[in-house]
Every structure is written in structure tokens, then in C-alpha cells.
């Protein structure tokens, strides 16, 4: 199980206190999941310090495909790693929608993440029109075809797929458990087709309006290996409530 917080473009330096609070809240108790927090890049260094001595790991929200070069404003996977990050979110729907990221770009970034030794969380998900048209599964399969690297990372646990229906992000709406189960089964089958037995170790997260109130139900769905959490990851109290909602397996 992996619970990943995506802070998006939220948080000035003071926000790192939430990571300290999260760490204190987790103290001592056996963790039901790996905990990842992905703050804005400006906070990674401070976040890594705040997470020291806890089991929280820190990640980025995007990276460039090249290790370095004349790419003003960009940050490479190697730079994230150097700042102390262990993971990176790639191809989030906001990046696909607002910054024109294509499947091919996401795949190149995922290869870069692997090269730098980062866990890659590759995001996929249909929009509302595609869901209504009955195309959700085929849309996601096509995104996987284009976005996932051809070869598995050395440790298959380092490849994570996050299923985030665009219409569920930040809206308070979520698919029902049957819809989540159908999509996660389709993603597992796709991974097995591409990577064989290693697919069993790859984690498939659900994302989109995960809150303390619905986390228990969503995380109990077959093939749901965790969650990617936006708004509810910003406050340690909400994130802790989601962690406590992880069902026993
Ligand atoms: P949300 O965002 O939990 O605020 O809906 C999820 C995401 O975009 O990763």
C-alpha cells in the first residue's frame, strides 16, 4: 500500500510544518502503507529535512526527460534525486491539460526517473465525456500504451500507476467501487500483459477526491494498492485520518 500526497502549487516554507506534524502523528505506530509527500520543488529540501527520522519519503511533481541542459525553468530527475527526493509524479492530468504533456513526453520522463533511481508515479485517467461515452477503459489503456516505458525498472515496485479520473479531481465526486474495481483490474491486466509476473508487485493507486470519509471504502477495492491524494494531503490531520482508514488486508 502506498499513500501519496500531491500538494500541487500549494505551500510556502511554513507548510513544511505539516510534514513534521505528520511525522509526529505516525511516530511509533506500525505503518499500514508507505507514505510519500510531493510538495512544490522549492520545498523539497526542507521537506526532506522535516521527514528525517520518520518513514515519510519525499517526491517531486514533475521532471524533465534530460539529466541537464539548456532548458530554462526545468528540473531534471537527477536534480530531484540530488535534493533528496525518492519519487516523482508524472503525467498528472493538470500537466497533460495545461502544459500539453503527451504520452510520449510522459514516457520519456518515466525513463528519466528510472535512470535517476526515482519511483515513477505515472498518472492516467479519462475525462467526463469519455466516461459517459463508455470509453474510460480504452482511453486509459491507450494512455498506458504511450506513457509507460517498454522495460520494467530493476525493482518493479518502483513503477506506480495512478488512476485519476479527471472528473473526480478536486470535485468531491468519485467513481463508485465497481467502477474503480473495473478500471484497476484492467490496469493490472495491462501491466501483466506488458511485464508478466512483475505486474503483481507494481502498485496501482486511485486518485481524485480521496478524503478521510471515503478512503476506507476506496482502499478496500480489489487491485487498489493505495491513493494519490491532493487537497486532503495538505493538512497533517486529514492525511493522518486517511492513513488510519487503511483497511487490514
Ligand atoms: P484531489 O486531487 O484529491 O484534490 O482531488 C488529486 C490529484 O489531483 O492528484
Could you describe the 3D structure shown?
With 249 residues, the chain is α/β, with parallel strands linked by helices. Helices cover 39% and strands 16% of the residues. The protein has 10 helices and 8 strands. The protein has helices at residues 16-26, 44-51, 77-82, 93-98, 103-115, 128-132, 136-147, 177-195, 212-219, 236-244; strands spanning 2-6, 34-38, 56-60, 87-90, 119-124, 159-163, 203-207, 226-229. Strands 1-2-3-4-5-6-7-8 form an 8-stranded parallel barrel, surrounded by 6 helices. Helix 5 (103-115) crosses helix 7 and helix 9 packs parallel to helix 10. The longest helix is centred in the last third of the chain and has 19 residues, at 177-195. The termini are close together. The structure holds 2-phosphoglycolic acid. 2-phosphoglycolic acid (PGA) binds next to strand 8.
Strand content: 15-25%
Judged by helices, strands and strand pairing, the structural class is alpha/beta
Separation of the first and last Cα atoms = 10 Å
Biggest β-sheet description: 8 strands, parallel, barrel
Low-confidence stretches: none
One letter per element, helices H and strands E, the order comes to EHEHEHEHHEHHEHEHEH
Placed side by side, the strands forming the largest sheet appear as: 1-2-3-4-5-6-7-8
Structure at a glance:
The chain is of the alpha/beta class.
Q: Tags for this entry?
A:
single chain, 249 residues, globular, binds 2-phosphoglycolic acid, eight-stranded parallel barrel, 39% helix, alpha/beta, 8 strands, 10 helices
Topology:
Elements: E1 2-6, H1 16-26, E2 34-38, H2 44-51, E3 56-60, H3 77-82, E4 87-90, H4 93-98, H5 103-115, E5 119-124, H6 128-132, H7 136-147, E6 159-163, H8 177-195, E7 203-207, H9 212-219, E8 226-229, H10 236-244
Parallel strand pairs: 1-2, 1-8, 2-3, 3-4, 4-5, 5-6, 6-7, 7-8
The chain binds 2-phosphoglycolic acid.
